User: Fold these one by one.
Assistant:
Number 1:
Amino acid sequence: MKLYNTMSRQVEELKPLEDKKVKIYNCGLTVYSHPHIGNWLGYIYWDVLVRLLRETGYQVERTQNITDVGHLVSDDDSGEDKMEKGARQHGMTAWEVADKYTEVADHEAYEVLRLIRPDHLISATSCIDRQIEFAKQLDDKGFLYKTDDGMYFDTSKLDDYGKLARLDVEGLEAGARVSMAGKRNPTDFAVWKFSPQDAQRDMEWWAPWPKDGDEGDEKHLVGMSRAAYSDALQGDSEQQTESYKEYGEGVAELSTQQSAESTDGLASSASQQGGAVRGSWGFPGWHLECSTIALKTLGDQIDIHTGGIDHIPVHHTNEIAQTE
């Protein structure tokens, strides 16, 4: 079988890493509204590819993400989260919008169009703790730096950044404006965004990058949503423990006793401090989920990555940067 390779700009023979097994990652929908015909066209292409691979004797393992947080209206990491914008337009919470349009997409894809369901279908909000862990690894390796609105990936640390889209990085640098909201390079991208101080988002989680530069000591809160935190302050120890289990895989790994003790301590501390918790509330950058989900389900290397052609210059380019 021969396929067009975006990286080489050539049609090449498919040579899987493992004989007769192909690992595929599909960049899925952002579920802020009803899917359109362009979305389904991509899905049908992927479905045909999977069917052809299986028909010719390949074993296929496929992962697809569901973007339900972090996809901003602008590719330059500015503007409103599409989920929060959709919530305002529909008169719902962002969580309700995500649930509704995930269900709509699921029905249309696998019941109406009768596409093959991926082996792994994972939403961004279901693996926040893993995304934070992955971002922390990038930070520990020196790839991230802090700005007023988040943690950014320093693309100048990669000699081959932009190779997929064949970006003229030097040209972008030469034409860049002096002020770029604290970014060191015009191609740098957000790995984790801080929640705005003048508004509370529907979807936000505690992460170990406080805005004030202090480390903070509530490490047991990492990956916990604002909703679960509020529940923990208002409920008894048993209810608080359940909140930890429900909203964060990392928190759920704590023993029942540890979790109860932590929430008791949290409630006491927050009560004394007027509900404040040192640290920062925020949400993952758009590109982080795909790297995290692909690594979690398919391992360090995959054979085929698919997605919208419009995402090559930014989204897919940044996936490669942070994953490699």
Number 2:
Amino acid sequence: MRADGELPREEYQALCKQADDEIARLEQELKALSPAPEPQTVSSDLKAIYDFLSQKVDVHGARLAPELIDQFVEVVTPFADYSYRWKLNTGCKKSKEERTNLMAVSEKPLLTFTIDFETAKRYREANKMPHQFRRAAWIDLTVEVYL
């Protein structure tokens, strides 16, 4: 409606602010109704994640377990030439202010690994993909994983 000119800019901004205020109020109500997780629960969740990752992550193999990608990777962000940051989804919904900006990360990554030519070649062969790159033209990819 705003793009079509049916709604003046000021009215649109007022409606957006009203909607944001309502969302914030409802999130506060939801937070008040939901019990805070106990530290033991949080640490057991982290242990479950660590155990799962220990079983599923083999960065030297031809494949990364598809369950890992499907279950945990929320977003992949390229941040430099041939470097990527993976944001893992731990199942906890965070507020707008708490969401991680993967372009300006202040914490250390949970895991860092490199995809070299041999790893990419094994992956390509394991998945019956065509020959699309040459060793001389290959540049290693760096992946950082964050919670």
Number 3:
Amino acid sequence: MVSESSSVPSTPSSNPDFIDVERFFTREKAKPRALYPAESIPAISRHVYHLIHHAIRAALRNAFNRQAYVDAIIGLVTRRRVAFSMVEWDELKDLALACNPAIEDSLITSRRTVMRYISANYELYADHLAQSLQSAVSMIRISSDLWTSPHRHGMLAVCGQWVDKDYGLRKALLGLLECPKDHSGKSQAGLIADVLKRFGIRRVGYHTGDNATSNNTCLEALSEKLFNEREIIFDPVRRRIRCFGHIINLSLQAFLLARSKALQAALHATGDVAGAQSVETFSAASVRVHLLHQIFRWIKHWKRTMGDSKETEMLAE
């Protein structure tokens, strides 16, 4: 016989699968919401605006490629021959900030910084250029020119022309050096020799320069220096090419402006009546040619001043 106690069901808490129906169908009381006072709403708006503004500014700064910007500045200064002080122009800063207003502290604003970047860029590409020069299939032709800068510094430019291993014609500025002492041919020869040694150039071809007498001394000193220091044979007479543009310029000056004493000396050297008549004819003609040259210079200046009108164009023709 089963006892009474056995007929009493067990307590629900002892069974883990038991569901409390009353608790299940009873909705819990909602928690009270946090209410903000009305005066704190502007502060929240300012905080949200600050977060959005910071996110936008961070996105703009991340989109800025500084290396591309530096390369563009270097290319603009070197290829377009713009002054280093260009980076200090307010207009250039405004242009950059119009494209990205979040990069004001990343802009280059000092000419010394530009010079430092250009020097580093030159050293980087000089190594690649040296490899191309050493693998050239032709001799390396060089050309040099010396002039005085507006700041009274003597500058010597040394350029090279060659055919690379892919049989493509190449040319490059190998060096732009300052002559600290004087402009003599011997000083120029030392600078040119340093450039050739810097790039490992041994197969020196022809040299092109103007008709200055200092170039004669320069090539003679260069030939001696190359042979003594690197055992490179360079004929200073055979390997010299005079600048054709300079020759044309001197010829035009002698013909149009009668500035060449050598031409008049050549006419006087004939010593006969025909030579004397040639001198008189040349002297009379040179005065008229000089006057005509001055008239055309005045017309050109007047046309530039008054504007491109049809009357000035007809007069210039």
